[in-house]
Amino acid sequence: MAAEKYLTPITADQVKLEIKDPVDPTALIQAKAIVKELTSDDSGDGDGKYAGGGINPSALMMVAKKLGDIPKEDSYNSYIVTKGECKAAFEKLNETERKSLENIYARVKTFADAQRKSVTDMEIDIPGGKAGHTVSPCSAAGCYAPGGRYPLPSSVIMTAVTAKAAGCSTVVLASPHPAPITLAAAYIAGADLFLRVGGAQAIATMAYGIEKDNDQGPAIPRCDTIVGPGNKWVTAAKSIVQGYCGIDMLAGPSEVLVICDDTANAEVVAADLIAQAEHDVVARAILLTDSQTTLEAIEVAVGDQLACLPEPNKSTATEAFKLSFAVLCKDIPECITISDDIAPEHLEIQTRDAMEVGKKCSNYGGLFVGEHAAEVLGDYGAGPNHTLPTGGTGRYTGGLSVFNFLRIRTWMRIDDQKASQEMVDDSIIMARLEGLEGHARAAEARSTTVEPAYKKNAPSK
């Protein structure tokens, strides 16, 4: 009997484009209940709505302690981590750890600063005047960093540094029971406020704010946009608040897809697949190759490397491989076609002429070209952001960037009424074609040749 494969072998026609709703129905119900609790009055009087507006800070503390964000026995009765605590955590790092954090910060900031400079205010001539756009940051940004199985200080830097580079005046960070390294990352990233709460309660607090300083902590501004990876309750809460504020995306399970040929290093590919699989039991590692020999070598390497992976990483990755698969394709162009259908979060190319193959791929969150461009280098601050679209959404959107925090707003001005008349005439005609008589008359009010209909048809006084 053949041994069970880590990467389930399937054919090209068995690959299904699965765009699943990333919002878990049960988590959504629970998130709605949490939001209701946070916005309710705990006095027992009135209509049940919190009179202070936004989030009830007492309710936030109760929920945070009930759900384990803040230890119940914690005598420090506040939802905020102070800047002093973050600075102290940074200073307690050893020199090697501090240097690594500073290096990652510098690379992410350099990339984000370059992105910001790539889009600028502009203006053009229009008949009789000027039109243009301005680029400006939102005022307050909310950044979420997971604090569950593995604390992710890298997500603190990826989100908060990017918001700062965009020019946001206030950056609110949230992470439950933050580890010292998370506090240190918050310090170097320059977060203005640090909520030590997580899940739906963190997203709701950043979205609706806390209006006034109180016994549990300071006022929290309503964030204009909220970004960052999180668990299913974070995703559910984002789905609740989107529209009230902006969000980066509704993220599903993490995924990597590797396209490789017979030149690929099987051990390197296996290591990258395992690195993705250890994220979560529902993460996916996908292999597309035109080489049977390479496929078999990678399968062996996955087994060998999993065998010596420590726990709980080993059990998590092994479970994730049950959702993972490999396709033996007839050639690299077929690999590209399948990859574009899947639109993976992370796409690695380990082939001959890897850059040329990469240029032919259309749909992905982040592209990693060549054997040495490991996806984990992107995770830990090569420069580009590691918060990327999942579940096929790379077909129509990209990863987190300064643009998530920027508003491009257009304007127009007419300086020469006579020179603008052709534009006025076109507007009158089009408005009546659309049946919008009020629009037509508003344009006629700017005409130098046509008497507005509202004057012709005005009732006698």
Briefly say what this structure is.
Helices cover 40% and strands 15% of the residues.
Report on this model:
This protein is 40% helix and 15% strand. Mean pLDDT is 91; it is low at 43-47. α13 (354-359) links the parallel β13 and β14 (366-369). α1 crosses α8, α3 packs across α6 (180-189) and α7 packs parallel to α8 (232-241). The chain has 17 helices and 15 strands. By secondary structure, the chain is an alpha/beta fold. It has helices at 25-38, 57-66, 83-92, 95-117, 153-166, 180-189, 199-208, 232-241, 266-277, 292-307, 313-320, 332-342, 354-359, 375-379, 421-433, 437-444, 453-456, and strands spanning 8-10, 80-81, 122-126, 129-137, 140-144, 170-174, 193-195, 225-227, 246-247, 255-260, 284-289, 325-328, 346-350, 366-369, 406-414. The strands form three sheets. Strands 1-12-11-10-13-14 form a six-stranded parallel sheet, sandwiched between helices. Strands 2-7-6-5-8-9 form a six-stranded mixed sheet, with helices on both faces. It has a three-stranded antiparallel sheet with strand order 3-4-15, with no helix packed on it.
